[in-house]
Amino acid sequence: MEGDPLKLHDRVAIITGGAQGIGRAIGLLLAQNGADIVIADKNDQQAEETVQEISLLGRKSLAVKVDVSNFSEAEKLGKTVFDAFGRIDILVNNAGITRDGLFLRMKEEEWDEVIAINLKSVFNCSKGVIRYLGKQRGGKIISVASVVGQMGNIGQANYAASKAGIIGFTKTLAREFASRRIMVNAVAPGFIETDMTRTLPEKVREEFISNIPLGRMGTPEEIAEAVLFLASDASNYITGQVINVNGGLYM
Ligand SMILES: NC(=O)c1ccc[n+]([C@@H]2O[C@H](COP(=O)([O-])OP(=O)(O)OC[C@H]3O[C@@H](n4cnc5c(N)ncnc54)[C@H](O)[C@@H]3O)[C@@H](O)[C@H]2O)c1
């Protein structure tokens, strides 16, 4: 699949949280397949580095500093991108954080922050782009959920709720916008090698891996492949779905 330059030829994709990790891998793969890329991240320094890498692939790329949990900032993103590129075809809602803790110890701020950055952001950014996708009579919204939103996970009540919320949101938007040929889907990664998981103690990692039928963690590039499929015309009859990329952890 990788490297077919016509797959997303001249489409414009926005990737939230695209400065590093899974979002960065998505940006690079979509660019290799012909898309111009906007990296929307609060970490503008890291975003600039990723934009440089994407530019080396011969595609246009722009970093936009945004806190996706802030409604007015995130909603403005659509206009900023439209003014710069003249179109928007793909939104990838990828920005996310964890603030783990057992429920009895979880603080209200930890709940609020995770819901705002992981879930409200998806509402905010989708609001910002939907009118442009609608005018073009077509487009793709792809959100990064998690296996944890499907299975639950001890210590992640806030995170699991935010990711399950993304799945409900995805199915609803898919129904509301199908007539305008806007396809809305999610990818649910399992346990992926990024900064988010690198800090886990070795024992916890081993325990997680022992439950994965394929016996290993996934890579950001393996998530990017599923996003590329959902962003391309190869998936034009698919909407309201969750693609699980989890090594068989949840079936
Ligand atoms: N790593 C995993 O195992 C795993 C598993 C399932 C789902 N996911 C999901 O994949 C997505 C990407 O995760 P990752 O592992 O690459 O994480 P990461 O921490 O490496 O990257 C997250 C990115 O989001 C950005 N970000 C955070 N808060 C933001 C905000 N308020 N506004 C704008 N940008 C913000 C960060 O600056 C960073 O660039 C997340 O939604 C995460 O929940 C990850």
Question: Could you explain how this protein is built, in words?
Answer:
It is a single chain. The protein has 251 residues and is of the alpha/beta class. It has one domain (12-245): NAD(P)-binding Rossmann-like Domain (Rossmann fold). It contains 9 helices and 7 strands. Strands 3-2-1-4-5-6-7 form a 7-stranded parallel β-sheet, with helices on both faces. Helix 4 packs parallel to helix 6. The longest helix has 28 residues, at 108-135. The chain is globular. The chain starts with 11 loop residues before the first strand and ends in a 6-residue tail after the last strand.
Bound heterogens, unique: nicotinamide-adenine-dinucleotide
Note the beta-strand portion.
Answer: 15-25%
Q: What's the β-strand tally?
A: 7
Structural class comes to: alpha/beta
What is the overall pLDDT average? 96
What is the helix/strand order?
A: EHEHEHEHEHHEHHHE
Tell me the overall shape: globular
| Biggest sheet statistics | 7 strands, parallel
Relevant CATH superfamily: NAD(P)-binding Rossmann-like Domain
The N- to C-terminal Cα distance equals 24 Å
CATH fold label: Rossmann fold
Low-pLDDT stretches are: none
What is the name of the CATH architecture?
3-Layer(aba) Sandwich
Task: Name the helicity range.
Answer: 40-55%
Strand order of the main beta sheet, please?
Answer: 3-2-1-4-5-6-7
If you compute it from the alpha carbons, what radius of gyration comes out, rounded to the nearest whole angstrom? 17 Å
What's the CATH C level?
A: Alpha Beta
